[in-house]
Protein: Helix-turn-helix domain-containing protein
Amino acid sequence: MKKWDTKFKKVKYNWYIITQVINKRLLEGYTQEDVAIHLNLSTGFIGQVESPSSRAKYNNQHLNELAKVFKCSPREFLPDKPL
Structure:
């Protein structure tokens, strides 16, 4: 993948964060709709975020709010080392 070829694929860093949120969501038994309600977003947006072919992603505020929901640190969604 070329550096700027992200039109239909998420960059590795963003996809890592999203998969961490998905894993936490599933582990805690939350649906996409549950997450959408907590973040005051549409379920469709959460579906787009979780789709590898969409450019939608969580921002820092979203991650902070998700950490509150999952009772964890926002750092748990970030990689330990640069990707």
